[in-house]
Amino acid sequence: MGRISHRSRVFRAGIDDMDIKWIVEHDVFDEDLEPLIAEIKRQGMEVEQIKYIPFESGSYNNFPDDACVIFHGSLNLGRQLQRQKPWIPGSFCTLDNFKCSKYYAHYGKYLINQRYVMLPLAELKRRKEELFHRFDPQFEHLPGDPQVFVRPNTGFKTFTGQVLSESNFNKDYEWFEEFAAPDSLVVVSRVQRIVREWRFIIADRKIIAASRYKPDVEHVVYRNALSGETMDNEARLVAERIAKEEWQPDPIYVVDIAKNGFDTYGLMEINSFSCSGFYACPVEPIVREASKLALKEWQESRE
């Protein structure tokens, strides 16, 4: 689909591309910042940069309350703007839909980690031997340090998902307690060797951009326009199937697909569009399609 000039496209609600606003947060996705801002301006839209100061409310009166505004930045600021500003859409971040307990119900068959347990954080400590036994085949059979992978259920990412070893259990568990309440749900699964990962941007049930990253152990980003040597048809197929599912977390969102050491492909996680980095995804289709969906949502709110 070719690019449509903002000069020739006027919408029935009396707003055109130039009336779509973007707010981009400083110091979050630094590698995305300059290319994103340049592309927004190139497509004829206004963009403001803002800086989030933790524990301060801020006014954020960059645009009128009735404006069509798209936010891109941190979860903290995105959540604050959702509370304070009536912008539409504001953040493409329906946070409840990015809980594992929510999207696993719809996308469970695509997960790279098909075997998992979801339980309160406090139960992780009480049941640690059972969990190591269940998810680490060497436990009680081979010498070594048994491991499991633990991540929070919440889409707010109260702590970073990580490998938890038996030898460091108490130290790591104390770290979890710093960020999550005892009754917070966590997901426990087997540790896998991930050899490839891809990030896909899904908009209106279609893949609009993709980037490969993390080849083997080294973290390297490759530019990717859905073709060429950096794309893998199997990874793309999983992302396309997710995009075609009836349930969708948001009109536009992010899907991370992984390939493990057994050449199995599956879903690592999904994340919100407004609060995720683009890695090396081309920004032109991202800005174009996100703006189109924002405008559609803004118009529908005024019907």
What keywords describe this structure?
D-amino Acid Aminotransferase, Chain A, domain 1; disordered N terminus; 3 domains; five-stranded antiparallel β-sheet; 28% helix; four-stranded parallel β-sheet; alpha+beta; 303 residues
Number of helices: 8
**SS content category:** alpha+beta
- Biggest beta sheet summary: 5 strands, antiparallel
- What is the highest CATH level, the class of the largest domain? Alpha Beta
Brief synopsis:
This protein has 303 residues and is α+β, with helices and mostly antiparallel strands.
Structure characterization notes:
It comes from marine sediment metagenome. InterPro entries: R2K_2. This is ATP-grasp domain-containing protein. It is built from eight helices and 13 strands. The radius of gyration is 21 Å and the shape is globular. Helix content is 28%, strand content 25%. With 303 residues, it is α+β, with helices and mostly antiparallel strands. α1 crosses α8. Strands 11-10-9-12-13 form a five-stranded antiparallel sheet, sandwiched between helices. The protein has a four-stranded parallel sheet with strand order 2-1-3-4. The two termini are 28 Å apart.
Strand-helix topology:
Elements: E1 20-25, H1 30-42, E2 46-50, E3 68-72, H2 75-84, E4 88-90, H3 100-107, E5 116-120, H4 121-126, H5 128-135, E6 147-152, E7 162-165, H6 169-179, E8 185-189, E9 194-203, E10 206-213, E11 221-222, H7 233-243, E12 252-260, E13 265-272, H8 283-301
Parallel strand pairs: 1-2, 1-3, 3-4
Antiparallel strand pairs: 5-8, 6-7, 6-8, 9-10, 9-12, 10-11, 12-13
